[in-house]
Amino acid sequence: MLKARAVVENLKEYHPPLGRREGLRLDFNENVGGCSPRVLRVLASISTEVLNKYPEREVGELAVAGYLGVALDRLLLTNGVDEAIHLLCETYLEPGDETLIVVPTFSLYEIYALATGAKVVNVQAGNDFAFPAQKVLRAITPATKLIALATPNNPTGKVAAREDLLAIAAAAPQAAVLVDEAYWDFHGETLIDQVGAVPNLFIARTFSKAFGLAGFRVGVLIGDAAQMKMVRRVGSPYNVNGVALACLTEALTDREFITGYVSQVREGRARLEQFYGERGIPFWPSRANFVLAHFGDYRKPLVEEMRRRGILVRDRNSDPGCAGCVRITVGTRPQTDRLLRELSEAFETIGFKPQPRMSLAEAEARR
């Protein structure tokens, strides 16, 4: 009888809350304002020549390399950041190797690492989800072959200091160090300038958040040229489809659109944080396009009430250290106006009163 590998049989699945998502979708950190009008014009003009031939990734990679100021041999377009993570795991992990991640964070780091037979070592974030640089450094062993770090992090919006990330890469020369900058557009600080100078450093970016291209599944992995040559060996040459490549090239030219959307998100983020602060709601200042806040026992009623009002928000209760927490994506200015209005009314409807946040130990015991 055919059987999957044991690690696959025991692997937990990533279950995004897809389906029944009608309404204002502030639960997935997508660009909820839509893509550039230039992209729509490209879509309307797609010819059969784009559809009936295998995609040629190099044109898109040239455009992205120019946009990011990166040499072409240090860059690989991927099917979203998800594939970038998967390729790193397939390139560098053997069964029994160790992968370090700081939790809470994006769950696919763990899933893809475990699928190779590697061991995942979780390092709990510090107080208020501060990046635990010293804990990560102490957790590095000769068996550490991948360290995956998101900055800004999801779901907390917290960032890691540049010097801490470089210290970690220097302390683990035998490991691939992935710095996931999916939310870079809303933060503005990057380690791309260190690619090549630090041979084991990789940077991942996505075009799902600020660019509004989540449906196309386009990401990019950047690293040392010699290492990227190895990564390319385990990937498909046709991993990004032709329609996505055509639209991405045009999206990169509309910098005014990206700048305008990012500006609205940053403004909305500040307004949402002020809204929480004025009401005594515990929240964590964010550098991404979302804000995580603590609602305690009112978490589930709030998520349900907001859905009833046509706004989807993300329950993060099951993440380590996030008991009672809800994450809300920030969108355009009109969308933020509506969000704040509906939140105020939802609080009244469910009788919400701010609650002190539990410690990690209390939250785990309660769970």
- What's the architecture of the largest domain, going by CATH? 3-Layer(aba) Sandwich
Question: Order of SSEs, N→C?
Answer: HEHHHEHEHEHEHEEEHHHEEHEEEHH
Total domains, how many?
A: 2
Strand content: 15-25%
Write the SSE topology:
Blueprint: H1 6-9, E1 24-25, H2 37-44, H3 48-51, H4 57-68, E2 75-78, H5 80-92, E3 98-103, H6 108-115, E4 119-124, H7 133-139, E5 144-150, H8 162-171, E6 176-180, E7 201-206, E8 219-223, H9 225-233, H10 242-251, H11 255-278, E9 283-284, E10 290-294, H12 299-308, E11 311-312, E12 314-315, E13 325-329, H13 333-350, H14 360-366
Parallel strand pairs: 1-11, 3-4, 3-5, 5-6, 6-7
Antiparallel strand pairs: 2-8, 7-8, 9-10, 10-13, 12-13
Helix pairs in contact: 2-10, 4-10, 5-6, 5-9, 12-13
